[in-house]
Amino acid sequence: MGRFTYAARMSYEESLNATRDWENMVEAKLVEGCKEGLELGIAKGRKEGKAEGMQEGIAMGKSEATLEIARNMKRGRKPVELIAEVTGLSPAQIESL
């Protein structure tokens, strides 16, 4: 570097600065893109998890309702065959209530 003229040295340093600026900009955009991607991924995961949780909750609610109907019918001394037909439960499940 000692053999460069002042103008050549300044040109070289400007070139280095431009390259470093470009590298910093690319790195910043990469980090920004990664953050955005992560946030989108988390949001999508939450949305899917929420939908899955809602479906599981609905299924559990239906199951509980079926069991409650079967219990009420059993308390009302309805035949096991009728309870099974109405609820879709097996006779063994009904007997265990």
What does this structure look like?
The protein has helices at residues 6-75, 80-87, 91-95. By secondary structure, it is mainly α. The protein has one domain (6-95). Helix 1 runs antiparallel to helix 2. It is rod-shaped. The model has no long low-confidence stretch (mean pLDDT 93).
Can you give me a brief rundown of this structure?
This protein is an all-alpha fold and about 100 residues long. The chain has 3 helices and no strands.
Number of strands: 0
Mean pLDDT: 93
Low-confidence stretches: none
* Derived structural class: mainly alpha
Major sheet size, sense and barrel closure: none
Distance between the termini: 90 Å
Shape: rod-shaped
Q: What is the gyration radius calculated from CA atoms?
A: 35 Å
Strand content: under 5%
Number of domain units = 1
Percent of residues in helices comes to: over 70%
Q: How many individual helices?
A: 3
* SSE string, helices as H and strands as E: HHH
Task: Provide keyphrases for this structure.
3 helices; mainly alpha
Write the layout of secondary structure elements.
Elements: H1 6-75, H2 80-87, H3 91-95
Helix pairs in contact: 1-2
